[in-house]
Amino acid sequence: MSGLLNFIQDSIGPIASKIANQKHLVAIRDGLVLIMPLTIVGSIFIIIGEFPIPAYQEFMLGVFGETFWGGFVWGVAFPATMGISAIVAVFGVAYSFVKNQNIDGLPAGAIALASYFFLLDGEEGILSYLGAEGLFVALVTGLIVGEIYCYFIKKDIVIHLPDSVPPTIMRSFVALIPSVVILFLFFGVRIGIALTPFATIHNLIMVVLQAPLMTVSNTYLGTLLPSMLNSILWTFGLHGDQIVGSVTGPIMTANYLANVEAFKLGLAPPFINCDGFGAIFLNFGGTGAILGLVIACKFMCKSKTIQQIANIGLVPSIFNISEPIMFGLPIVLNPIMMIPFILVTFAVTTVAYLAFALKLVAPIIVSPPWTTPIFASGFLATGGDWRAIVLQLVLLVIAFAIYFPFVKYVDNDYLKKEKGEQ
What pLDDT digit, counting tens, does each position of 341-388 carry? Predict the structure, then answer.
């Protein structure tokens, strides 16, 4: 076992860390983080406007009237939050990419925003691709603009002014040459794609890249493999959420926003595996459904060591923070606890996916904060479906049942050591 651990730490660990810190993936992650507050606020408005209790809806209609209450969520709140996710992301990705290379990122963000609008086709196209539909193109645009802008700055292909010029004016002139080149480039891209059968960049990305990735991610294997990889990385002390999420995050966000768009149009949300599915139904208490382990430690174990660990980890795990247990019990580099940790991930992923695939639970249409406690998170995420609470309870019981015999073995070992010390 020690040989395997050394191999993981020496060989796989550095590779995984490089992936997590790869500059393009970091920029995408930061760009998506920038839209997270908008997603959360938009979700809150959806909960308020679509709360599935007839008496509540009748009361709100009576207070605000049909004109306001019927349109404030999808006509005002949604366009102002999730509806501008693409343009916020394109700015954020370019800004982050450039800033992480110790260059002023604000001009790059502004250029990326203008470049993205160069790709949009007419007034209807502009309105259609400010949100979820344009997210992939926005991410790619932000990266390309960031790369080109950094190239010009590093090669010093800029206009130089005397030091007496105010910094704000200097910034504008430094960005002028990169702006001209980048904007003309994106204008040329738009013209070139318009001459192809795809007509627009969004059609090209959807057919060639986005649709296949989203389809694969929504399959059982597309859901299970990233989840399992996340847990396996954690068992060796690597932050699986950051490493795996840096690759899958854009797809999960696009899937979630597509669900919201479908719900907005009165259609069935198409995606099971989307932003929120993992955090809410697979990783309650933290990665590996740690809450089930904490409950087993707190109420079924007798050793002072386990009890102290459970007391420290209980409150954080309620809010889906698992590090006190992950490193305190520990699970990391623990040959005994690694086994149930991975088994639980497999079990809860399989059961949760089947429950959604069989339509036993309503699809996810709201993305509550990842720290939302179990049961409340499932109820909110599915737009008020009580069956989501039942599913989370079943998953919690499964996690508890798998963890229990293993942690009880560890508990007995601690008890023997404690008795020997007395």
Answer: 999 999 999 999 999 999 999 999 988 887 889 999 999 999 889 999
Q: Per-residue DSSP letters for 176-245?
A: HHHHHHHHHHHHHHHHHHHTSTT-SHHHHHIIIIIHHHHHHHTSHHHHHHHHHHHHHHHHTT--HHHHHH
Rg (CA), the chain: 25
Rounded Cα–Cα distance for residues 202 and 210 (Å):
9
Q: Give 315-368 as a DSSP string.
A: HHHHTT--HHHHHHTT-TT-HHHHHHHHHHHHHHHHHHHHHHHTTSSPPP----
The percent of residues above 90 in pLDDT, for the chain, comes to 31
Contact (Cβ atoms closer than 8 angstroms) between residue 302 and residue 415: yes
What contacts 106, CB < 8 A, 6 or more positions away? 95, 171
Taking residue 151's Cβ as centre, other Cβ atoms within 10 Å add up to: 12
Q: Peptide bond preceding 37: is omega within 30 degrees of 0, i.e. cis?
A: no
Cβ atoms of 269 and 363 closer than 8 Å: yes
Q: Where do the domains of the chain lie? A: 2-218, 226-421
What's the mean pLDDT in 187-195? 89
Residue count of the chain: 422
Whole-angstrom distance, CA of residue 369 vs CA of residue 377: 8
Q: Alpha-carbon distance 280 to 375, whole Å?
A: 9
DSSP label of 265: T
